[in-house]
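Closing statement on the adenosine monophosphate sub-project.
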Amino acid sequence: MSILVWIDHFGGKVQSASWETLGKARSLADATDGRVAVAVMGTDVRDIAEQAIAYGADVVYLYDDPVYEHFRLEPYAAAVKDATTSENPALLLFPATTRGRDVSALVACQMDLGLAPDAQEVSFQDGKVLAERPVYSGNLIAKVVVETTPAVVSLRPRTAPMPEADTSRQGEIVEKGAVIGEDAITTQVLNFEEKAVGEVSLTDARIIVSGGRGVKGPEGFEPLRELAQLLGAAIGASRAAVDAGWISYDHQVGQTGKTVRPDLYIACGISGAIQHQAGMRESKIIVAINKDPDAPIFQIADYGIVDDLFKIVPALTEELRKRLD
Amino acid sequence: MKFTVLLKQTPDTAELPKITPEQALAGNQGVTKVVNPWDEYAVEEGIRLKERFGGETVAMSMGPDEVDEALKSALAMGCDRAVRLWDESFEGSDVWGTALVLAKGVEKDGGADVILTGKMSVDGNSGAVAHGVACKLGVSLLTQVAKIVDISDGMITVERLLDEGRETVRAPLPAVVSVVKEINEPRYPTFIRIRKASRAKIPVLTAADLGLSPDQVGAAAAKVKWTELVKPPAKKREVVIIEGETPEEKARKLLDYLMNVEKVI
Ligand SMILES: Cc1cc2nc3c(=O)[nH]c(=O)nc-3n(C[C@H](O)[C@H](O)[C@H](O)COP(=O)(O)OP(=O)(O)OC[C@H]3O[C@@H](n4cnc5c(N)ncnc54)[C@H](O)[C@@H]3O)c2cc1C
Ligand SMILES: Nc1ncnc2c1ncn2[C@@H]1O[C@H](COP(=O)(O)O)[C@@H](O)[C@H]1O
């Protein structure tokens, strides 16, 4: 039995969700005497193949070619299909990152395979792949059985633990090149405007400091940013703050924004509407800072402070700075 | 140009937490339904594309009779026509079954240059129907689209919103485009348009019309089956409200909990 894991990276920087997914595959394989194969695509990404071995891969199919410079669905799906043919796995496992969800869905459809997207659990039973996935925006959990072999599953970031790298592990690297050439690819990337450096992405974040209508304006996010910087945290926002134009949409958490599950979510001046909860309820620890003791956010929070966020947030930053010194 | 918007009727997001597994399995019976929130952006963009480039915008959905209400909302916003795809044999379709029906629907309706979808449905949460439709039709797929820059010479140029930044890409038409909220601000329909839409007769295409046999769609063809639907375990404990005389004292106490008890910092 074999499991094939796809590794998501951006310009050589691997999303931690990829290693979590690889760790999950390793533990499933260990329980069934199986092996773990990994597929890596990119240019000059041999070091990712080596890291993958350290994180638990037995074999790595390495697609290193200029055709994989930018993530494009056509060459990436072709390479995943090629690796699937070489490895003949029982399960194709992807991190449920934006790219991971795109390529897994396309490969599954092209190969006529069952897909369980954004699963929080995956297992084998009687030769079949079972998965648990949140549906109804996290209000219900569907347990599903995938009727095809291989099964295709994407694993929600931060549901499996981050494995330890072991640089003494041995594995094989199988060199593969371009599966389809540039002339067969119709999508052209014309431009890429990278985000400001140092900004932590919401999907990967261990800690998120989030602001709502209570921050009162674009400058109201400043104290939150100071705290976030000390914590190495990402900045989140409610839709009210995004719609008011105080912060860009890619920070929005919730029903029509991102779904996150950090270790710590600090909600500042956010009432906790159902649509906001849909995106953050799964956080391990939730802290709410709100003037209104009846705000619904307190119903799902672990810790609450009923006070003015403009007093509490700077006090937190100050106290934390003392402790970090 | 022809623009086709694929929209789904879903439960009102405010009611999602109240829905029981039984209601969900019975097709969300007894629940208030609306146009899937993400799909409102797709409808709006479909109408704007027609306003920019000329042509026709069609709203299409797979679902039973009641889905006419959602299609009428799209007509009220400004779509020219609506088409509903339904047959008993479609019941229980998984993403690929749904995608196949929608792809056949688009073909039967004479094809389209741009097929718009939402990012995901608030009930199914798969975010994969767009991929399925593009795959079944064998056309370009552009996801996470925050702006349609241009359509010309048989090509579409869009901006995609990714975790690391904003990407501009060009792909040949026809294309399936799934949109995110940033793309626009959906309009409110006018009273006149709502009245007009409420009287619309929406044609229905069946499995026979689409040339689909029962083994290709519905529960029988599903490659993924739901074995159980459960409520997630309830919240583990009550909130601890941090008391204190000053903000500094509250901050100290909170950090003690987070650093020493929970160890999340
Ligand atoms: C289809 C649909 C989709 C939606 N999707 C999303 C989504 O993805 N994400 C999302 O967040 N919302 C979403 N919403 C909107 C949601 O319903 C709420 O309107 C929104 O979350 C409210 O944002 P808020 O909590 O910042 O604002 P409010 O509800 O106005 O709350 C502001 C809070 O700040 C507190 N406050 C004010 N000043 C201070 C201060 N100085 N110190 C401390 N506290 C203070 C107030 O007591 C209040 O509780 C959606 C709604 C719909 C209908
Ligand atoms: N039954 C349906 N009829 C029409 N469009 C649909 C249907 N189901 C899903 N879609 C479209 O596909 C998108 C993604 O849905 P999903 O893959 O279910 O998350 C939705 O936002 C809709 O645009």
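Chain A touches chain B through 91 residues (CB under 8 Å). With this model delivered, the sub-project is considered complete and its resources will be redirected to Aim 3.
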